[in-house]
Amino acid sequence: GIQVEQSPPDLILQEGANSTLRCNFSDSVNNLQWFHQNPWGQLINLFYIPSGTKQNGRLSATTVATERYSLLYISSSQTTDSGVYFCAVGDNDMRFGAGTRLTVKP
Amino acid sequence: DTAVSQTPKYLVTQMGNDKSIKCEQNLGHDTMYWYKQDSKKFLKIMFSYNNKELIINETVPNRFSPKSPDKAHLNLHINSLELGDSAVYFCASSHRSPGELFFGEGSRLTVL
Known about the structure:
The complex is a heterodimer.
Chain A: E1 4-7, E2 10-14, E3 19-25, E4 31-37, E5 43-48, E6 52-56, E7 59-64, E8 69-74, E9 83-90, E10 95-96, E11 100-105
Chain B: E1 4-7, E2 10-13, E3 19-25, E4 31-37, E5 43-50, E6 53-57, E7 64-70, E8 73-78, E9 87-94, E10 102-103, E11 107-111
Parallel strand pairs in B: 2-11
Antiparallel strand pairs in B: 1-3, 3-8, 4-5, 4-9, 5-6, 7-8, 9-10, 9-11
């Protein structure tokens, strides 16, 4: 099955810093999605982005499907950005990476 | 007006018991899923239903049985619960299979 690797596994930032999270996948896919799991366990949709670039406020994402990776950019990070960020990819079903645990310190 | 809702949110039970988790979506989606999140936060797909038909059944013990009475509901029944079944179970739906996933809030199952 498809392999999904996320990096870094852990990231600690000071409030206001920028960061880039990466998702690599082993096969061509038609679906890719980024999620944020907040400290209360909720999985929140960030982007559905099989290809191209999208932006939503301080967050943006880029997927280069031909090179099998996606990037999630967080600018001017806030403490509420803390949590685990997952990417999920697939064709017949969506497979998750192990996540990047982000801690933003005040 | 929750899009994907699961009940119960918390479930504590003894080994050997049978329990069910219910899921309902009001998004009009055709496909519903169950995912399991273990203690290390890893999310793994268990089942996928499209219009009440099973389309994905990962390597899951047959003690786990999904049931879809209609395309808006996908319930998960677990027989003879074991300690290793303790996890958070997430229901999700998408317009097509696969497609953009929308998750419920999760059901935390603790087996004692």
